[in-house]
């Protein structure tokens, strides 16, 4: 069944996601505060106009404050029983606050952050981590099938964001561990290909080593082979690590490695040359340094 979909936030991720929904035959009405034209997507003049009469409103926005502001405008415009589907990566508290407001207005909220990046958004192969009610999840499932290849229902509102930041905290930590181990291996005179061949098939393996190897010319194609052009930019990794630490603080969880990874990416992005480079460019960073 074709649905009427409002889509707010047509940036690097939102534009290709909206395009895929339109191409699959849904009526998509988009809004972005910057003027953007997306193939097959109607343009609304405001977020509330895009939301009016929609069966589902999708948001793909930069952060929790912006999500809260957009939700305050959109929720009163939505029809009762419609789904408010936020795919942005935001703090757990904002996700839960927006969900509570939406529920109070008779809507079905979902937080469904994604992994897979711009390539996954364009190809329709994102993974969705979803928090919210079963009814809302079932309604949104056809959209997840179009925009992604996998959706995991993680429980109540906020749990999608919780899953996302826990995953990305592991990613940040394993990428740093992989990069510092390569830098150590170099100094020990161990060949990088040998290092990869051993670790990728031994207990040190991880996605960072096996699928996204930070050493150029080693392992599968990755941003390292393209002079560390993102990929997944270091500043986006920093954003997600900060969200993990905000959540850890709010829930009184002890995350020493998450904290250390956040501080390292902060230094890399803000004090060094990390901004605009892929997050795996931690390897040349470690290579250039001495024991601190
Ligand atoms: P982006 O900056 O390219 O897009 C955000 C869009 O939101 C912009 O076009 C901006 O104009 C629009 N916007 C901002 N405020 C608005 C408002 N008040 N009303 C309407 N539109 C507004 O960012 P992106 O890369 O598309 O990322 C979007 C979200 O997805 C972020 O939360 C990000 O963390 C997450 N994410 C990104 C990636 C990635 O690889 N880029 C991967 C996974 C998750």
TrEMBL record:
Q: What sequence ranges are listed for the domain 3-hydroxyisobutyrate dehydrogenase-like NAD-binding?
A: 158-283
Show where the 6-phosphogluconate dehydrogenase NADP-binding domain sits.
Answer: 4-155
Q: Which family does it belong to?
A: Belongs to the HIBADH-related family.
| Name this polypeptide is given | 3-hydroxyisobutyrate dehydrogenase
User: Which species is this UniProt entry from?
Assistant: Marivita hallyeonensis
